Amino acid sequence: MAGCIGILPRRAYNPRMDAFSFRKMHGLGNDFVVIDARRQPVPLGHRLVQAIADRHVGVGCDQLIRLDPAEGVDAEMHVWNADGRPATACGNGARCVARLLMDDLGADVIVLRAGDRVLRCQDAGGTDVAVDMGRPDFSWQGVPLAREADTAALDLGEKGLGTATALSVGNPHAVFVVPDVAAVDVAGIGARLEHHPLFPERVNVGFAQVLDRGRVRLRVWERGAGLTRACGTGACAAFAACRARGLVDEAATMVLDGGTLRLQERSDGHLVMTGPTATAFTGTFRPNGAA
Fold it and tell me: In a designed cystine with 123, which of 60, 93, 108, 219 is the match (CB 3.0 to 4.6 A)?
């Protein structure tokens, strides 16, 4: 497997004494604190993640990502949202950490494990990375929902929005197709629906406006992070929802607040997401006893 490094020796780590290094990265303004723990373990708890993610007294980020060693892949990606809760997938984050590993290993292809998915990441030229995000799951158990329901036309009780499409692309999403994204109270509705009882693991809420068969305007309320400038899994979910409704072709550009992502559905049903990555800065963080 290209670029695999296997398990590396790791030394003991004391979270109350040692500072650890990090890299601040972003994909279209969706920003991450990335901690490379392949060689040195970095324990992270709820309060410590919140402290790092705090934009006033910490580093500040939408999500925190830790890279750990794992058999058979280049690294395992663990993700936490800014509220300190674990997340199971992060599309923009996958591109960013793949770029970090490509630079570190001198590889054009990187394989990551994220939750129950294995993601193959390919250098796409410049700062761009293409990620095979796998197949979307439209089953109510896979989303998951609290009870059996029609995921293609889910009534979440929001008047004037119609029904949502619910699906998983490694994490749960509800996507509304709307005539005009600018006319939607994304933050208000998103914050309310994130905790809808139908979603036991909470949900990311997307609002998609189809501009034409090759372009979709999208805004996403992310669970545990709020309204972000871009959401990679949200772009994948919105594209898949629009494809399921017959509204877009097999490739489309997703227009987010922070820029554009390119989505393609392969013949095997896998979604490939391509977009830019960037490093803002590097630094160190001392936990100061936070757990």
Answer: 108
44 lies in some domain: yes
Beta-ladder partners of 105: none
Residues 6+ apart with CB under 8 A from 17: none
Instruction: Catalytic residue, from 61, 96, 231, 242: name it.
Output: 231
Verify that 115 and 174 share a domain, yes or no: no
Range(s) of the domain holding residue 252: 165-268
Helix, strand, coil percentages (3-state) for the chain, rounded to 5, are: 15, 35, 45
Kindly report the average pLDDT of the chain as a whole number: 93
Residue in the structure block whose two tokens are 């006319």: 183
For residues 130 and 24, membership in a common domain is answered with yes
pTM, 2 dp = 0.91
**Element spanning 264, H or E:** strand 259-265
90 part of the active site: yes
Q: Which of 90, 96, 121, 242 is catalytic?
A: 90
Both tokens of 101, joined, read 């590993």
Q: Residue 122 pLDDT > 50, yes or no? A: yes
How far is it, in rounded angstroms, from Cα 134 to Cα 132? 6
pLDDT band at 4 (very low <50, low <70, confident <90, very high): very low
Question: If you search the block for the tokens 């570190």, which residue do you land on?
Answer: 104
Q: What is the CATH number of the domain that holds 235?
A: 3.10.310.10
Q: How many domains does the chain have?
A: 2
Per the DSSP assignment, residues forming a β-bridge with 78 are: 66
